[in-house]
Amino acid sequence: MVTTKWNHAMDHLVPSIKGFTGLFFRSPGFAIRLFLARLRYFATGGIKPVPTPERYVIESPSGLLCYWGFFVEHEGTRQEWVRALRTAANPVIVDVGANAGIFSHYLWTYNNKARFVMFEPMPRLAKKIQRWGELTGANYKLHNAAVSNRTGTATFYATSEEGDTAGSLDPAGNRAVKIETPLVTLDSVLAEEKEILILKIDVEGFEPDVLRGATETLRRSRFLLMEAHGDEALATLQSILGPEWLAERVGAADYFFLRQNDPCRNGR
Questions:
Q1: Cα–Cα distance, 122 to 100 (Å, whole number)
Q2: Which of 9, 74, 97, 108 is in Cβ range 3.0-4.6 Å of 203 for a Cys bridge?
Q3: Other beta carbons less than 10 A from residue 71's beta carbon
Q4: Rounded mean pLDDT, 125-147
Q5: pTM above 0.85, yes or no
Q6: 241: part of which helix (H) or strand (E)?
Q7: To the nearest 10°, the Cα dihedral for 54, 55, 57, 62?
Q8: What is the CATH number of domain 79-267?
């Protein structure tokens, strides 16, 4: 575990230095507190709550790593969706596999008029999202459910009741915590949404099932951000989406999808 943590740190060294320098000049006090929290985590595996300037509270190791990834390294950030998000009047963001809500929070800092539709099956993580909404006043609707290609109920597996970034519908590994959760499709929930600016899906290998239950939703979505571990997983996603969607890697296993005819493509 220690080796994995330090390998992670070394792999992210260059973007971390660049991003931290910018953060330090914008907010030196917070930058130092965040850096010390990161050092504490890598040294001991623990973390104390860290309030952020934009009213989010980092409360877990996974939350710390995710916050650092978005706000320091700017993982997944592309000028196409940033420009569109900043200029849109009331954009709709769909966050599938919201976890503790850090991705939605990151987008909220670009446009606090955005409306968020969030899906998270873990009850304690759902409560963190609710707390985020109370602290920020963000416009959001939370579905305490898992997303797939069918509706009904399912068992969700995690390593702890606090939740983690590897929680999944797959029982494999050391996911000993079992939670019965409603199962929905995006098409069944988002039928009234006329236009979705950004659709983010991070469900630990079940992204294809989510897409298969989102045929109509995809037609109304402009930008996609999804996780794909390996070439085979990426090929599966592209086969479902079709040739009109172009993929670009924007993280270790994260991909940004843009339509070929989108006006933002190539800076147009």
A1: 9
A2: 97
A3: 22
A4: 96
A5: yes
A6: helix 231-241
A7: -40
A8: 3.40.50.150
